[in-house]
């Protein structure tokens, strides 16, 4: 059901498998005149696509990262998405609902992810609700269908460099719309987590559903 008063924004977020660029990308296959290597030397630059789908408008944002898939990478992308909204829309929103799988970098017990989202909610003054899919059900997350379309779109294309990667991503369509595609060269560290003592303060800010404490989490700004 779509929200008609503009107070709720429904998002679907996930990262796709890492894409390696170079002459051996796409398993050495290409539909173009460009000749591909038939052996993967494992030396090409790698990019991680992170997708944010606005379900009510079918607007798709794809951010390619050149570092690691981490909690900070995902929340930074969410902040960049927020900055694309008009100020009037930002002021109208009262709740952002986010559908996610239960991956290690964004699960309902990932301390740095929850820490960053609490800070983000406070910064924008808007409540955030995290809705997780149970194990083996992440395929029902709407963003997964966008990844399927992207894979079909550039299937057989030799992704030799980042410009080619971004060009093909920008020309895909999701329900008649081209995605908003950006790239970041920011380096993200892995293994960042909060101590148990620090997490106690964050946990007080989380309203966990009594029957689904790891799958339905509400954050209210202060």
What does this entry look like structurally?
The protein has 222 residues and is α/β, with parallel strands linked by helices. It contains six helices and nine strands, in the order E-E-E-E-H-H-E-H-E-H-H-E-H-E-E. The protein has helices at residues 71-83, 87-92, 111-124, 142-154, 162-171, 196-203, and strands at residues 8-15, 19-20, 46-54, 59-65, 95-100, 127-132, 180-184, 206-208, 216-219. Strands 1, 2, 3, 4, 5, 6, 7, 8 and 9 form a nine-stranded mixed sheet that branches.
pLDDT under 50 segments (min length 5)? 34-41
Give the overall shape. Answer: globular
**What share of residues are in beta strands?**
15-25%
Number of strands: 9
Radius of gyration: 18 Å
Instruction: Give the helix proportion (percent range).
Output: 25-40%
Question: How far is the N terminus from the C terminus?
Answer: 29 Å
Biggest sheet layout: 9 strands, mixed
- Going by helix content, strand content and strand pairing, the class is alpha/beta
**Count of individual helical segments:** 6
The SSE order reads EEEEHHEHEHHEHEE
Mean pLDDT: 91
Give the SSE map.
Elements: E1 8-15, E2 19-20, E3 46-54, E4 59-65, H1 71-83, H2 87-92, E5 95-100, H3 111-124, E6 127-132, H4 142-154, H5 162-171, E7 180-184, H6 196-203, E8 206-208, E9 216-219
Parallel strand pairs: 1-5, 4-7, 5-6
Antiparallel strand pairs: 1-3, 2-3, 3-4, 6-9, 8-9
Helix pairs in contact: 1-3
